[in-house]
Amino acid sequence: MEKANNYAESMKVVLMMYDGSLNYLNKAKEFMAGGDIRSRNIYANKTRDIVKELGKNLDYEAGGEMAENLSTFYKTVDMLLDLSTKRDDGYGLDQAYNMLSGVKESWEFISQQNAA
User: Of 48, 2, 43, which Cα lies nearest the Cα of 24?
Assistant: First the structure.
């Protein structure tokens, strides 16, 4: 039972981190649309911090290939966000948002399946 509770709590934290990253990306996109590059960069970097934290907490021993794939995914998202702070277009922000929201949906599905 304790293992199930730990899993449920870990899944909650992961989903909260995805929610936070998506909220920060929305803010970054709003500031980008308003021409506030400084604030866009602040929120893009907040998202990068979350993505880096997700990557640092991967369990390669338990996760195996999935952890490796997630590591590559997080590095790609980070690269897109880095580019978005160096370029004056929303491509990196949009791509990162789409990628993170898609994976978040997968985590939600897994969470629901394991709760049933």
Answer: 43
Model pLDDT for residues 70-105, shown as the tens digit of each residue:
999 999 999 999 998 888 888 999 999 999 999 999
Q: Are 47 and 25 in contact (CB under 8 A)?
A: yes
What the chain holds in terms of domains, given with CATH numbers, is: 2-115 (1.20.120.340)
pLDDT in tens, 5-16: 676 788 899 999
Handedness of CA 68, 71, 75, 81 (dihedral sign): positive
Number of Cβ atoms within 10 Å of the Cβ of 84: 27
Residues 6+ apart with CB under 8 A from 8: 111, 114, 115
115: tokens are 């709760």
Residue keyed to tokens 């897994």: 110
The Cα 100–Cα 40 span in angstroms is 18
Residue 107 above 80 pLDDT? yes
Global pTM? 0.89
